[in-house]
TrEMBL record:
It comes from Paenibacillus beijingensis. GO terms for biological process: amino acid metabolic process. NAD(+) binds at G181, L182, G183, K184, V185, G186. InterPro entries: Aminoacid_DH-like_N_sf, Glu/Leu/Phe/Val/Trp_DH, Glu/Leu/Phe/Val/Trp_DH_C, Glu/Leu/Phe/Val/Trp_DH_dimer, Glu/Leu/Phe/Val_DH_AS, Glu/Phe/Leu/Val/Trp_DH_bac/arc, NAD(P)-bd_dom_sf. This is Glutamate/phenylalanine/leucine/valine/L-tryptophan dehydrogenase C-terminal domain-containing protein. Keywords: NAD, Nucleotide-binding, Oxidoreductase. The active site is at K80.
Length: 344
């Protein structure tokens, strides 16, 4: 991986490598764009296999945040912080104190918040070192996993838009949806889909979560290495990225791919491969933008009910993208990229 070349080619403004010997912090803060405003994006903690994998994740996630903000016209840019380590075994408060000091040194160019592997208490520690952090105790975002709830709500509305366009259905009642990943967002998405009458196939490495979904939602469990092969109307990736690639796409048995995971495509050309198979791919950074929409709203002084209603922008946005794509003979991803890049 030629890190410097990739940083330049993808248009990054700044990438900061953070190391604190005393706490053991190893982290990257990637700022893709501050053209529209401060770079906004959460702090992820994960046991990466290598430094290259950590850096690549930070870059892809940060760029995605820029595009999410731009396509919805938010007054923020995109950034991301990633910490190398297992959230279960490698956490200590000193790491988050150190990260907070690094973020403070960026002078407001980057605002962090919750992401995979981090908690409200972690954000509270960062707050002791910098004011440039969201999702702290007392905020709307920290209230009952509100961010996850609204992200899932946006994905649910996006699925409704996709099946309307692709299948001519006015809702998901009676449709089959295969949900990969039962984390905070995936679980809540299942709840919305189940309540609306969809039949669920689910998969998760956490056996207890999978068993609970079978019990509560009447879902059918599918092995994790076969969920993308499940015959269904909608495949909803809600776990880690890169699931749509040369190996998996030929085995998909669905009409729509629409889920909460970031960076679902292995490469952007995989959107073309999906279209060749007549599978509607819903751009991940458009459908899963509920989190950044409400975070931007709270930073701008919005109240809880206003934030909830703001997420409803996902459905008309996607319907518009689908129309553009159909009229111009392009993928929905290309249409989304064009909209975002026009705003940058």
């Amino acid at each position: 991986m030629n890190i410097f070349r990739e940083i330049i080619d993808l248009g990054f403004e700044q990438v900061v490598f953070c190391h604190d010997r005393e706490s053991g912090l190893k982290a990257v803060v990637a700022i893709h764009s501050t053209k529209a405003g401060p770079a906004l994006g959460g702090c992820r903690m994960r046991a990466y296999m290598s430094e290259d994998e950590m850096i690549a994740d930070a870059l892809r996630l940060a760029r995605g945040m820029t595009y999410k903000a731009a396509v919805y016209g938010l007054k923020y840019g995109g950034g991301k912080a990633v910490i190398w380590g297992s959230p279960a075994t490698d956490k200590n408060p000193d790491k988050f104190h150190a990260l907070g000091r690094f973020i403070e040194g960026l002078n407001g160019r980057y605002i962090t918040g919750l992401d995979m592997g981090t908690t409200v208490s972690d954000m509270d520690v960062i707050r002791l070192e910098t004011r440039h952090v969201t999702d702290t105790s007392g905020s709307i975002m920290a209230k009952g996993d509100f961010t996850a709830e609204m992200t899932a709500y946006g994905v649910y509305l996006g699925i409704k838009a996709a099946v309307k366009h692709r299948l001519g259905c006015d809702g998901v009642g009676g449709l089959t949806v295969a949900v990969q990943g039962l984390g905070k967002v995936g679980w809540r998405l299942c709840s919305y889909l189940h309540e609306a009458g969809a039949k669920l196939f689910i998969s998760d490495l956490n056996k207890e979560a999978a068993a609970a979904a079978v019990r509560i939602f009447g879902a059918q469990q599918v092995p994790p290495d076969r969920i993308w092969m499940q015959a269904c109307d909608v495949f909803a990736p809600c776990a880690l990225g890169g699931i749509l690639n040369d190996r998996t796409i030929p085995k998909l048995c669905c009409a729509v791919v629409a889920g909460a995971a970031n960076n679902q495509l292995g490469l952007e050309r995989h959107a073309d491969l999906l279209q060749e198979r007549n599978i509607l791919y819903v751009p991940d950074y458009v459908i899963n933008a509920g989190g950044i929409i409400i975070t931007a709203g709270e930073l701008d002084g919005g109240k809880e009910e206003e934030l909830r209603s703001s997420v409803e922008a996902v459905q008309p946005m996607l319907l518009n993208l689908f129309r553009m794509a159909k009229d111009e003979g392009i993928t929905a991803l290309t249409a989304a990229n064009r909209l975002a890049e026009q705003a940058l």
